[in-house]
Amino acid sequence: MDIKKYLKDKRELVDTFLTPYFDSLASPSVLKSAMSYSILAGGKRVRPILALASYEACGGTAEDIVPFASALELIHTYSLIHDDLPAMDNDDLRRGKPTSHKVFGEGMAVLAGDALLTEAFYLLSLQSLARVSVGRPALIRLIRDVAMAAGAYGMVGGQAEDILCENKTANGEDLAFIHAHKTGALITASVRMGGILANAGRKEFRALTRYGENIGLAFQIIDDILDVSGNTSELGKSTGSDERKKKLTFPAVYGIGPAARKAEGLVHEGIGALEDFSEKADPLKQIALYILRRRN
Amino acid sequence: MDIKKYLKDKRELVDTFLTPYFDSLASPSVLKSAMSYSILAGGKRVRPILALASYEACGGTAEDIVPFASALELIHTYSLIHDDLPAMDNDDLRRGKPTSHKVFGEGMAVLAGDALLTEAFYLLSLQSLARVSVGRPALIRLIRDVAMAAGAYGMVGGQAEDILCENKTANGEDLAFIHAHKTGALITASVRMGGILANAGRKEFRALTRYGENIGLAFQIIDDILDVSGNTSELGKSTGSDERKKKLTFPAVYGIGPAARKAEGLVHEGIGALEDFSEKADPLKQIALYILRRRN
User: Does B82 contact A110 at a Cβ distance shorter than 8 Å?
Assistant: First the structure.
């Protein structure tokens, strides 16, 4: 299969939903502009695509659950806006464009993030937008799973630990916690979303979770390696910022070579978790390999 | 009825849920401390109490829905933490204590707010904590209603407009928009929560909404009047801050006397909306009157 074409098609599917949705948002114009600015800045849509691919792996049709999958991008984007704030990572560039607070001011950037997070849960609670009827038990379970992954037990918890560990001496345990929570939790929830919406069986669901946990960590390791060895124009954000901020990262703790080998091992572990799936899980497997090779 | 006792009893009901819930939160300790610090700072619990009273007005037992009602306090508290940030209202004092960013730093305050908002949706999706079995359709509807009220169409939208209107010439239309959204939307959703969870009929539900809209606006007007005429130790926050920041408020636009009369009219309008309810709606009516008389 042509994974690049697959990713492009699915990204377009997500963007075809997000663009009119944010164009028609009825809210004060500057807030709406700030929300749209970051959401429509051309992200890779990794998390929605993982949800769509996982839904396909369980026998579903990707087109049917685009609004739910897109909600993950709202959560991811809000986290980037808040992370970029001067009080947090203080970044000026994101996805090749000035960060939200640089364009709209800090107060509006905080609010744009808040609004996107809230809008994500609004989207998840809207059954009418999806092309299939999703059972309410699945929807409630989905909301709970996403909230758990995004909040204090997941992404925000990881981000808090990340801040606390800046300037701290390298420590593999802290590092594992930060990565598993800051990035891993929402990526795992994205993969699990496909399983929840397709009513996957217990065993399938466990396999998807294992796949998600492994590639989530691999994704973050590659991100950190790219921050050291990538270049700003390819990445669309400033490189070397982890080192400047003395962030705890895999390359910093173990070196680039061992970190890359660790990522490779995780990706193969993730692919292995899907061994009982049909060829419908091929996109998930290819995405895992793509994560290893990505340059941005 | 003794409304002071009623408010105290209901506040204790909410606090009896919130205190152990936040004590047992499994998240990095500083984040957990920051979340607990603001949640357990002794708020009046107005929004949860409105939800409980509204549930009672529809024939329910308040004790049965405390976790759902408490989720409203998480949303309200997150909004206070973010509003107090230097990039927003830059307040040092809240509920008589230093604001979150003063104690934990700006980055952690942003994250504590993010985590509380997310946790609110987690709580709303947990059927197991409530003492009655709440139908999933009602739960989905509740999540959608709260998200709508808290996000870009509601509270965050009002907050964004509030920032944009600072230093602007007085304008009644902007003022009405800000108040209806910044404070009114979540207060209305709180009242509606009781109706949704009790499966209120259409007419009852409309009446609760009208009650909520009226007392929500009255609540904000009194808040603004107290900011001019109250005192810091009673209020637990700095007074005169609206004027310093040239905020658009009712007393600023119309004067204190007309603003107070407006609030009185709204409260009576709100009480009038409940005329078809039994005596079980007495607490809601008394709360409306209490809002007029409150000193903090």
Answer: yes
